[in-house]
Amino acid sequence: PPSAAVNLRPGAEQKVVFITARVHPGETPSSFMCQGIIDFLVSQHPIAKVLRDHLVFKIAPMLNPDGVYLGNYRCSLMGFDLNRHWANPSPWAHPTLHGVKQLIIEMYNNPKINLEFYIDIHAHSTMMNGFMYGNIFEDEERFQRQAVFPKLLCQNAEDFSYSSTSFNRDAVKAGTGRRFLGGLLNDTSYCYTLEVSFYSYILGGPNSAVPYTEEAYMKLGRNVARTFLDYYRLNSLVERPLAPTPKTR
């Protein structure tokens, strides 16, 4: 039967959200967050249905499977920190990056596809809460637009901190997915590193740290997924009169 999904109609432009995780094998919380995003997107939740109708999600949940298998903390089987090799990944030494980058470039060159978001999920060993890194642009308006998604996420997730979210062009980070793809893609694309603490998030006062659990990481993933609806409602891709959506904390 013909699909109701807007994005599957013949000739329709596809709006793509590309998510990658676990490029650093020791950062296990990133897998739980990614799991939360996937579980939500394939669920029967009314928000998930709307998202599936309007967007295409491409998810690579584990960019460093050999490093994970070996129990490495940061490197691949070959001893590379893969998140410093996006600029020129080798099909032999960095095969997962090479494959994902080729796919992203193919999509970028396809006039029928608009790669709207690239989000790479990590975990952080010293900071609290969830937060994001974004890119710095000379264009003030583009810079402001880039802040919209993390601000919306902050409203949906009590453990996400906009105050810890930062935008940088640190030379050390030049080979990361966020920085490289932020330079490659045009100004309608948003590239972020999404970080979450290994330990806890802080609610209220400084002494109220709540330890993270696997479920809490997955919940943050679900909140990331639902934030796309808020973002696209603001940008009127999705008509407003949807069923009222209960805020599930």
Structure annotation, total helices: 8
CATH topology: Aminopeptidase
Sheet having the most strands: 6 strands, mixed
Distance between the termini: 36 Å
Q: From the coordinates shown, what is the CATH architecture?
A: 3-Layer(aba) Sandwich
The portion of residues forming beta strands comes to 15-25%
Mean pLDDT across all residues, rounded? 89
Order of helices and strands: EHHEHHEEHHEHEEEH
Cα-based radius of gyration, to the nearest Å: 18 Å
Q: In which range does the helix fraction lie?
A: 25-40%
Structural class: alpha/beta
Number of strands: 8
Query: Which residues form runs of ≥5 with pLDDT under 50?
Result: none
As laid out across the biggest beta sheet, the strand order is 2-1-3-6-4-5
Overall description:
InterPro entries: Cytosolic_carboxypeptidase (IPR050821), Peptidase_M14 (IPR000834). This is CBPC6 carboxypeptidase. Belongs to the peptidase M14 family. One of its GO terms (biological process) is proteolysis. This protein is of the alpha/beta class. It has one domain: Zn peptidases (Aminopeptidase). About 35% of the residues lie in helices and about 20% in strands. It is built from eight helices and eight strands. The strands form two sheets. The protein has a six-stranded mixed sheet with strand order 2-1-3-6-4-5, with helices on both faces. A two-stranded antiparallel sheet has the order 7-8. Strand 7 and strand 8 form a beta hairpin. Helix 1 packs across helix 8, helix 2 packs across helix 8 and helix 6 crosses helix 8.
